[in-house]
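Escalated from tier 1: nicotinamide-adenine-dinucleotide holo job.
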Amino acid sequence: MRRLLITGGAGFIGTNFVRYVLGIDHSVEITVLDLLTYASQKENLQGLPVSRVRLVVGDICDAQLVDELVKETDVVVHFAAETHVDNSLKQPGIFVSSNLVGTFTILEACRKYNKRLHHVSTDEVFGDLPIDSTERFNEESPYQPSSPYSATKAGADFLVRAWIRSFGLMATLSICSNNYGPYQHQEKFIPQQITRILSGQKPVLYGNGKNVRDWIHVEDHVRAIWLILKKGRPSDSYVVGVNGEHSNRWVLAQILRIMGKASDDYEEVADRPGHDLRYALDSSKITDALGFEPKNTEFVKGLTQTIEWYDQHRAFWQNR
Ligand SMILES: NC(=O)c1ccc[n+]([C@@H]2O[C@H](COP(=O)([O-])OP(=O)(O)OC[C@H]3O[C@@H](n4cnc5c(N)ncnc54)[C@H](O)[C@@H]3O)[C@@H](O)[C@H]2O)c1
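Tier 2 regenerated the structure:
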């Protein structure tokens, strides 16, 4: 596993993964394939050793380019996707293209050259749970996606599973909950609130703010992916969460408190159509089978560090 091809490696989780892997394994060489959509920027990879990281700007739907890059790699880690639910309601076509056709293109190249693939998925494929239930999703839960984003991610997961079953592709999947931490675009819930406050605007809350998300620090997600690459059983899926369930209203209240704002200093806006109510994951499999142990289990501490990061890295989010 010396040469890694990382799709979407200039986006939020991809950037954190590239930085983590370079730090933990000094023999690894990385090629990032990224279209550099609005969600990413090449500066995210600034300061990394050029002898070990190469950025190729291109589309995962470009079969010739993907073929060339997969041919010369040992393992593909597939993050690239359109990821914002609101955008998927306005422009579903690019989600079908990047998330479905893009994944198909990666799969075909991996099949041709018999390369190991790790596919990064989301708990949104399962749909949502009632707010007041104690049920959690696991690897066996049925898929019931709600938005064009989650439907195209679900479709991509099915493609990966079909390539495993039909063609014997060596692939693993991770299905993770909501991530937070550095390098996340400010369109997403936590950085949106932080950057609005830092730029003198009021933060905004969708609907009644009761929607519950299972928050995981991005560093724990990338550690889980690395663990799956090292120890995971090819053909297996692993659900990754840290029991970090909090309502959006509670998370916003913490951000306001940490940033020294009054608890009512925000605006409520109309809810997103089809807004999922609650996500929650049961990570027993990755814990028991691979020994996964999250390190960032204190959410408020991780949130405070994330706020500091956005304060200290204004160039990351200003003028975007
Ligand atoms: N953010 C979360 O909370 C979360 C949780 C679970 C799973 N995931 C999954 O993790 C992956 C990464 O998510 P993220 O939050 O880092 O997203 P992101 O939007 O920050 O990054 C996505 C990256 O993919 C690139 N990309 C998009 N379309 C492309 C294309 N056609 N060709 C090449 N590159 C393309 C973008 O330029 C960007 O760098 C996604 O597959 C997402 O579904 C995200």
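The first strand starts at residue 3 and ends at 7.
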